[in-house]
Specification:
CATH superfamily of one domain: Cyclophilin-like
Order of helices and strands: EEHEEHEEEHEHEHEEHEEEHHHH
CATH class of one domain: Mainly Beta
Structural class: alpha+beta
Strand order of the largest sheet: 3-4-6-5-7-2-1-8
Helix content: 25-40%
CATH topology of one domain: Cyclophilin
């Protein structure tokens, strides 16, 4: 009676001692049948000692027997562990011995025993495990896989830095009937049961991308960082915004071309929501480019294909899809533009996945950059400082003091002229008094 474990390092075939340990072997085979061990990690690997698996949480504290698993799915209670089967002749003598890990009893009265955790020895003559853990099988094929498992790099707790997982379990022969209530899942698990942050078992940490792919990835990350910066400074409504697909950018226009002219020319492709020639903010002169918004993307595509290099007012225009998102931010293409008729559509910028972001960013004040702060307290109003009445004399003193502080050089010359004027007046008075005498 054998079981094939397909691991990320290779295959392992385990021959079970079904006659000597019937209960242990039945528990192991039925857990394999319900795909319990699929995608489990070897969470404890000690060099030349053992490799342990069978815990869905990969912490060493989880796992249960097949009877407890059936009872939990039916909504009833059953013991988590079963009594281990120790056979004196089955010892941990050879490399590749498979044993069930025996959990100790807990303080709350839970009895210890065997659940789902098992381990495979990676060395010979580990006799101090005899009588402590129940041997129930031996590895008959895949000793080279055990050698690879023995050489993996682990952390201080014995967890491999790169996950080693049981990808699939195949039962080669099962002599036991299914217990009552056993239900085999319709599909095989596709996600690991634990939340591992280790290097994935199918990931190569030393692999390098080709130069072109690495450059493309670098440019993508740089673009994301730039978009986040533009969102922070207010140039973008949010970083993951995309230009609308129903807006055309038209350039190389004749300065005399008006909004009405373009709208009349492009209206044959569909309903135009807005058509605007961008003009200088100060002079009002045409900047010779415009934005045309259609109701549907297909209509914009027709305008793009049909109007390329078409002669309009003695100028061959250039048509492309717009890359601007300024209208998504403040509702217009330029500061002094008037918005044309626009029909309300679902979502934000024609995208339903951005609607929630728009509602969060919109704020209560409206307009560009008027975002609500998430830490504002509802109903909390800023306190107003009471104005104190000042006398005219005090106001004049404050003004003179402020003038003196603002311009020391000017105050110095002003004071010097004042002193000279007072001295001259005093001299004139003294002279007049002497003459009268």
């Amino acid at each position: 009676m054998s079981v094939l474990l397909e691991t990320s390092l290779g295959d392992i075939v385990i021959d079970l001692e079904v006659e000597a340990c019937p209960k242990t072997c039945e528990n192991f085979l039925k857990l394999c049948k319900v795909y319990y061990y699929n995608l489990h990690a070897f969470f404890n690997v000690s060099k030349d000692f053992l490799a342990q698996a069978g815990d869905p949480s990969a912490t060493g504290t989880g796992g249960e027997s097949i009877w407890s698993l059936i009872a939990s799915r039916q909504g009833t209670k059953a013991p988590r562990y079963f009594t281990p089967e120790f056979v004196p002749r089955l010892k941990h003598k050879e490399k590749g011995t498979v044993s069930m890990a025996v959990a100790p009893g807990l303080e709350d009265g839970t009895k210890g025993g065997c659940g789902s955790q098992f381990f495979v020895t990676l060395g010979d003559n580990i006799d101090y495990l005899d009588g402590k853990h129940a041997v129930f099988g031996h590895v008959v094929e895949g000793l080279d896989t055990l050698d690879k498992l023995n050489d993996v790099f682990v952390d201080q707790e014995g967890r491999p830095f790169k996950d080693v997982r049981i990808r699939h379990v195949e039962i080669l022969e099962d002599p036991f009937p299914d217990p009552e209530g056993l239900v085999v899942p319709d599909s095989i698990p596709t996600r690991p049961p634990d939340n591992s942050t280790r290097i994935a078992e199918d990931e190569d940490p030393l692999a390098t991308l080709p130069e072109e792919e690495a450059e493309a990835l670098r440019r993508k990350k740089a673009a994301q960082a730039s978009a986040l910066t533009l969102e922070m400074v207010g140039d973008l409504p949010f970083a993951n915004v995309r230009p609308p697909e129903n807006v055309l950018f038209v350039c190389k226009l004749n300065p005399v071309t008006r909004d009405e002219d373009l709208e009349l020319i492009f209206s044959r492709f569909g309903t135009i929501m807005s058509c605007q020639v961008i003009r200088d903010k100060r002079t009002g002169d045409s900047l010779q480019y415009a934005f045309i918004e259609f109701d549907k993307r297909e209509e914009a595509e027709q305008g793009y294909f049909k109007m390329q290099n078409v002669l309009v007012d003695d100028r061959r225009i250039w048509v492309d899809f717009s890359q601007s998102v300024s209208r998504l931010n403040d509702g217009k293409w330029s500061n002094d533009a008037k918005m044309g008729p626009r029909k309300s559509r679902g979502g934000f910028a024609g995208r339903d996945d951005l609607e929630e972001t728009r509602r969060y960013r919109a704020g209560s004040g409206g307009g560009r950059g008027s975002y609500d702060m998430v830490f504002d307290v509802p109903g909390d109003k800023p306190r107003k400082r009471k104005s104190r009445s000042r006398s005219p004399r005090r106001e004049k003193e404050r003004e003179r003091e402020s003038d003196r502080r603002r311009s020391p050089a000017r105050n110095y010359h002003r004071d010097r002229d004042s002193r000279r004027s007072r001295s001259r007046d005093r001299y004139d008075r003294d002279r007049d008094s002497r003459q009268r005498r």
